[in-house]
Structure formats: C-alpha cells, structure tokens
Design a protein that fits this description.
By secondary structure, the chain is an alpha/beta fold. It contains 14 helices and 15 strands. A nine-stranded mixed sheet has the order 14-13-12-11-7-10-9-8-15. Strands 3-2-1-4-5-6 form a six-stranded parallel sheet, sandwiched between helices. The model has no long low-confidence stretch (mean pLDDT 96).
Length: 388
C-alpha cells in the first residue's frame, strides 16, 4: 500500500488521485489530509479512503503521525508555495500542482527552499510529457527541422468561462492567466526548443468580454436576463451543452482592469537563450470547434506541428517531396499527460525513476509567466529571471 498525504483535497487533486494515480496503482490510499473544508474534502474521498483518512491541522503533524510514502499539494494557487516550502524539509516524494508560485517573492523563496533539499518533486505539467509533445520533441531532436529557429504556440480555450464562474475568478489567488494557464505552455515551448525563455514582450485584453457591472454574487437562476443571456444554462442547453447554475461572468465581482481581473486573451513574444524566438497566444472566450492547442516548430530543414485537440502531428520536409502525418488514438486527461505524470510519480515513490517535471522547471516557468505579466502591464520588454 502507498500512503499519501494531501494538503488541499480539492477537485483537481482528488481527481488525479482517484481517477489517474489509482488507475496506475490501485493500492494507493489517502491516509492524511490538511484542509479547512473537511466536509467538502470528505465528499471527494473514494470509498476505499473514506474510513481511514485522518484530518490534521498542519502539514508537520500529518507528516509526523501518518507514516507517509508521498505528499500531494492541491491547495489554491496562492498556497502552493508556502506548503511546498514546508514539504521541502521532509525529503518525501511530492506531487505539486501548478503554478508553483504566483509572485516573484514566492518563486525566489521556493527556489531557495529547494536548493539543498533531497525532496523529489513531480510538478503538474502534463503537456510536456504528453505522448504527442514527446513525439514532436523526438522528431525535432532527430533533425526534422534542422536547428529550431521559431515556434508558434496557440491555446484557444473552449472552456474558458471557468476562469470567471469558479474560484479562478479570484485574482488575488490566480494573479492572472499567464500564471494560471500559460505556465503549462511556456514550459513545453522551452522543452521543444531545448532552451529557456530569456526575454518577453506581452499584451493582454482585460474586461473586453468578461467582467462588467452586474451585481456581485449574482447567479443565472436569480438573473432577469437568463432567458436571453448567451451564458445562461437555458441558452447553452440549446447548443447541446449541460451547464449548471453559476455565478455571472459579467459580474462586478469578477474584478476590473484597475483592481485586477483575468484577461480575456493575452499574447507573448518570447526570446530563447539559443537565439530562437516565438509567439504564444491564449484566448478564453472561444467555443466548440474554435478550440486549438498546440505548436508549430520550424527551422531551415522543415516544420513539425501538432494540435492536441486534433490529436495529430504533421512533419513537413522543406526540401523534399514527401511529408508525413501521424494520428493518435484514444483520449485521456490532458491529452495523455496526466497518466504519464502518474507513472512518473509512482516511479519516484518506488525508487524506479526520476521526475521529468522537476521543481526547477516549475519555477522557471513561473519566472517566464511573471515576466509576461509585467510586460503586459507596463508595455515593456522584460528579461526573464533564470533558476540558479
């Protein structure tokens, strides 16, 4: 039996444990939890954990008493760093949700905490390890494009309203969608280009679509516009969507450009240490078949491009007659990346392998995201701090 302790047993981490980790190894047991919402956490426990899981008032107490084989941190984003810093001292394998930090102060503190620790970390970066991304990386490493010179990466998010109807709308917790969303993408972009991002110029649009002056706390069921609003469950039902009653995406409690609000869309021009550069764009108001997530990497010899939603990769030879397309089969969480991370974490716990998504990678991505956030707010090019 593998004994796991969890700080913040929310929806995301409970799903990872119950439906991904346990698919790989059914002998996983949640034996300890630190979470102020005990009722909510208990409702997410699997039947095999419900009887034996013990709630503790601190990470220290849980580690001391629960005889853990591993830790997982699934708190709200602003608490990832404080709990990870505490976890660093225990040298127990750690699964850490992204973003690993939401400010420069947090990120630098986290880097210091892990300089001398022996705590192995698997950061929740499933895109880097997803089979399609790894396939693209292998093609590039084998010379399919020659020297990588440019990358274009897109993230057209068809479920973007979650950042205004759920806890993600709390800007103090998320600090915007570069940190919340692009942290995945900057990481896999650096992986594909085999080089860290060193400089960023970014732009964003705030309050053009979501947010507004509807009353704070308003839900669709209480709104007089629910029969005509494009975001109401009644309207979404006509499009074949099953949407529950939710907070208004046009409410004043979504924030404002002055007080802080998630961006409707944002883009970044990025420079890599290798001399290559690229562009990244994320859009949160698209729906349906407008979805897109993937990248195109090019060099003099060719182009390798892929899209996770289409589940396929194209290799284009610039100087030959024949090109190739590879189509994936099946569809799993985060395009297969969640399963790969689960395998990695269990291998780390059992001493059979090392993490492919280390704490240093998580921190480096945060540094790039913080640079993009600063650039979008100031209109200036911003240098990216480097780990170490």
């Amino acid at each position: 039996m593998i004994r796991i302790g969890v700080a913040g047993f929310g929806r995301r981490i409970s799903s990872v444990i119950n439906h991904v980790l346990r698919d790989v190894d059914p002998d996983i047991r949640v034996v300890g939890i630190v979470d102020p919402d005990e009722k909510g956490a208990r409702s997410r426990l699997a039947e095999c954990d419900a009887k034996d899981a013990v709630f503790y008032n601190s990470l220290d107490t849980m580690v001391r008493k629960a005889k853990l084989d591993a830790l997982a941190i699934g708190t709200r984003c602003n608490l990832h760093t404080p709990y990870a810093i505490k976890a660093a001292q225990y040298d127990i394998p750690l699964y850490l949700e992204k973003p690993v930090a939401i400010s420069m102060k947090q990120a630098t503190s986290l880097e210091r905490a892990f300089r001398k620790t022996h705590c192995p970390v698997v950061v929740s970066f499933p895109l880097r390890v997803s089979p399609l991304c790894v396939l693209a990386k292998n093609y590039i490493a084998d010379g399919a494009v020659g020297k990588p010179i440019h990358i274009t990466a897109l993230n057209y998010v068809p479920y973007g309203t979650c950042y205004w109807i759920e806890g993600y709308r709390n800007y103090e917790v998320t600090q915007g969608l570069f940190l919340q969303k692009a942290t995945h993408d900057f990481d896999y972009m650096s992986y594909l280009m085999n080089s860290p991002i060193v400089r960023v110029a970014a732009m964003a649009s705030w309050g053009q679509v979501f947010g507004g002056n509807m009353p704070a706390g308003l839900t669709c069921s209480k709104c007089r516009k629910r029969h005509t609003c494009l975001e109401s469950p009644e309207y979404r039902k006509r499009l074949g969507e099953k949407t529950a009653d939710h907070l208004c995406v046009f409410g004043e409690d979504c924030g404002s450009p002055e007080t802080g609000i998630n961006e409707d869309c944002s883009s970044a021009l990025v420079e890599f240490a290798s001399g290559a550069h690229g562009i990244y764009t994320q859009v949160f108001y698209v729906r349906g078949d407008a979805n897109a997530r993937g990248a195109s990497v090019s060099g003099y010899m060719g182009t390798v491009k892929f899209d996770w939603y289409a589940n396929e990769l194209h290799r284009i030879r610039h100087h030959e007659l024949f090109n190739a397309t590879e189509k994936a089969t099946g569809d799993t969480g985060h395009f297969g990346g969640d399963l790969e991370l689960a395998e990695d974490f269990l291998n780390v716990i059992k001493g059979r392998g090392k993490s492919r998504t280390t704490i240093q990678m998580g921190i480096q991505s945060v540094y790039a995201c913080l640079a993009a956030k600063e650039s979008a707010e100031t209109g200036k090019f911003v240098k990216v701090r480097q780990v170490g």
